[in-house]
């Protein structure tokens, strides 16, 4: 493990999506009550609430800011008899008429046009899935100390984040295994007019093959940030994607400011975004801070792993593994691989007591999943 004093430093941010519901736990029909507040906004639909923390200097600080935003939100919603639906899968709704597109106007009207395109392409129901996005960037001092060959810093930084992106893409399944929390859903998600709670075959519907994915698998070129941005541009130029925001993969490389391939290519990577976390209904804020702490440790661990070529075949496998991890009964080999990665992380962070505690918390989840899987196999053999 590195002894760099900036190793655990960085910038952290949380985006939490939820839905607004009325006293009957039906989707709220009132306008979004927070105006253009950049920290309490919405994503696709008007009856959604997205809390966006400012940049923080630790997971703990980001969670505390999220708690403050959550409190403000709940107090304001309570004035209209509304509350937050703290589940990744939506409550019962009658039809897509209950899902009004976010009413962005004025300077933000282009956001509405984009959402109208999404409605036509994917339908509104898909957009009701809610979750947590975790944003992270390394401390600049840490990156400068890593740059031992005194390469152009801009280039070095971009190449490092691209290498990390590839590692996270092929390991995104692990975070799904550890944080999936949405096996139940209302039948209205299947068909208008239906009702009743269904136990699905998935532990996370939004991460499963039924969840947030493009109509095709966007194959990207990871040789450099320039070719990476260029391969996104090709999908946009051909009309396969409306914009970079429609790239529904579990990991994103983000520039500072406007999220566009032009900005990414010109100004480079500012931070990396992990998009696979389900809302945890047993956690008051919808997220257990230990899960985000583990994600940070996973990022640091993967940074130490060797680079590789993320071929089209490996990109397809990464998505298959991600969707497999979203099953209630994922493949045994995936669970075994999860144990291997976690045990390797234990060795990597062996000198950090807090890290070992966080890793142990997640390791227990894998052990429980393995036990559950073996119990099912044993019962079926009788």
Automatic annotation (TrEMBL):
<dbReference type="GO" id="GO:0005829">
    <property type="term" value="C:cytosol"/>
</dbReference>
<dbReference type="InterPro" id="IPR007370">
    <property type="entry name" value="Glu_cys_ligase"/>
</dbReference>
<dbReference type="GO" id="GO:0004357">
    <property type="term" value="F:glutamate-cysteine ligase activity"/>
</dbReference>
<dbReference type="GO" id="GO:0046872">
    <property type="term" value="F:metal ion binding"/>
</dbReference>
<keyword id="KW-0317">Glutathione biosynthesis</keyword>
<keyword id="KW-0436">Ligase</keyword>
<protein>
    <recommendedName>
        <fullName>Glutamate--cysteine ligase</fullName>
        <ecNumber>6.3.2.2</ecNumber>
    </recommendedName>
</protein>
<keyword id="KW-0547">Nucleotide-binding</keyword>
<feature type="domain" description="Glutamate--cysteine ligase">
    <location>
        <begin position="243"/>
        <end position="320"/>
    </location>
</feature>
<dbReference type="GO" id="GO:0005524">
    <property type="term" value="F:ATP binding"/>
</dbReference>
<comment type="similarity">
    <text>Belongs to the glutamate--cysteine ligase type 1 family.</text>
</comment>
<dbReference type="Pfam" id="PF04262">
    <property type="entry name" value="Glu_cys_ligase"/>
</dbReference>
<keyword id="KW-0067">ATP-binding</keyword>
<dbReference type="GO" id="GO:0006750">
    <property type="term" value="P:glutathione biosynthetic process"/>
</dbReference>
<comment type="pathway">
    <text>Sulfur metabolism; glutathione biosynthesis; glutathione from L-cysteine and L-glutamate: step 1/2.</text>
</comment>
<dbReference type="InterPro" id="IPR014746">
    <property type="entry name" value="Gln_synth/guanido_kin_cat_dom"/>
</dbReference>
<dbReference type="InterPro" id="IPR006334">
    <property type="entry name" value="Glut_cys_ligase"/>
</dbReference>
<feature type="domain" description="Glutamate--cysteine ligase">
    <location>
        <begin position="7"/>
        <end position="238"/>
    </location>
</feature>
């Amino acid at each position: 493990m590195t002894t760099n004093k900036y190793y655990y430093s960085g910038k952290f941010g949380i985006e939490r999506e939820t839905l607004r519901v009325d006293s009957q736990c039906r989707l709220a029909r009132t306008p979004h009550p927070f105006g253009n507040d950049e920290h309490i906004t919405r994503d696709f639909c008007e009856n959604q609430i997205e809390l966006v923390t400012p940049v923080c200097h630790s997971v703990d600080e980001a969670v505390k800011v999220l708690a403050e935003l959550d409190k403000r939100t709940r107090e304001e919603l309570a004035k209209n008899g509304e509350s937050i639906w703290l589940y990744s899968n939506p409550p019962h709704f009658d039809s897509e008429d209950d899902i009004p597109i976010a009413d962005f106007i004025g300077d933000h009207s282009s956001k509405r046009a984009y959402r109208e395109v999404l409605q036509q392409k994917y339908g509104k129901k898909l957009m009701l899935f809610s979750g947590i996005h975790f944003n992270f960037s390394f401390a600049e001092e840490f990156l400068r100390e890593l740059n031992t060959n005194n390469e152009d810093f801009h280039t070095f930084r971009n190449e490092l984040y691209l290498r990390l992106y590839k590692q996270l893409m092929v390991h995104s399944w692990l975070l799904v295994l550890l944080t999936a929390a949405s096996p139940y859903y209302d039948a209205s998600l299947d068909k208008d007019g239906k009702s009743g709670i269904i136990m699905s075959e998935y532990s996370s519907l939004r991460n499963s093959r039924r969840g947030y994915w493009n109509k095709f698998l966007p194959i990207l070129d990871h040789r450099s940030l320039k070719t990476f941005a260029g391969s996104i541009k090709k999908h946009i130029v051909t009309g396969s994607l409306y914009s970079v925001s429609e790239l529904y993969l579990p990991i994103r490389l983000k520039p500072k400011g406007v999220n566009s391939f032009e900005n990414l290519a010109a100004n480079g990577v500012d931070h990396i975004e992990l998009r696979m976390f389900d809302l945890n209904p047993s956690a008051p804020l919808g997220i257990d801070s230990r899960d985000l702490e583990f994600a940070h440790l996973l990022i640091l661990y993967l940074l130490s792993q060797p680079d590789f070529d993320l071929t089209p075949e490996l990109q397809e496998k990464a998505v298959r593994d991600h969707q497999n991890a979203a099953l209630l009964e994922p493949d045994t080999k995936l669970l075994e691989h999860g144990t291997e990665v976690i045990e390797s992380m234990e060795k990597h962070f062996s000198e950090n007591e807090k890290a070992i505690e966080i890793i142990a918390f997640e390791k227990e989840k894998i052990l429980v999943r393995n036990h559950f899987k073996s119990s099912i196999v044993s019962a079926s053999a009788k």
